[in-house]
């Protein structure tokens, strides 16, 4: 990937990324990542990835398209939040990718998870008390 600095918001630094045109992907996974561009945010003070989003800029073919392909336009968004000092949790996961595998089977990966209202509980909370809270 080729990275370019974007804005800075307090401890957060924006990095824009796009495929490195000189890279030749050695695997299917690397080919999929190589077809993506997007933005990530890093907490520079804690050296922590806080947010990343991207999309496929062009289709990715596996085995010349005979084994399968990923459609252009698929996207993802992932966000982590610091829920207490030094402790981070996944807050948002949004993935929408479409592909075709082994000639015929169309596969769609669509997942959306949002987690909010994290709060610290007592350190001496028992398992039974935790179950009651749920």
Proportion of strand residues: over 45%
The tally of strands reads: 9
Low-confidence stretches: none
- Could you spell the SSE succession in H and E letters? EEHEEEEEEEH
Rounded radius of gyration (Å)? 19 Å
Largest sheet: 9 strands, antiparallel
> So how many helices?
2
> What oligomeric state do these chains adopt?
single chain
- How much helix, percentage-wise, in residues? 10-25%
Broad shape: extended
Quickly give the structural class.
mainly beta
Average pLDDT figure = 81
Through-space gap between termini: 42 Å
Molecular structure report:
By secondary structure, the chain is mainly beta. It has 2 helices and 9 strands. The protein has helices at residues 28-34, 127-133; strands at 2-9, 12-18, 36-43, 48-56, 60-62, 68-70, 75-84, 87-101, 105-114. Strands 1, 2, 3, 4, 5, 6, 7, 8 and 9 form a 9-stranded antiparallel sheet that branches. It starts with a strand and ends with a helix.
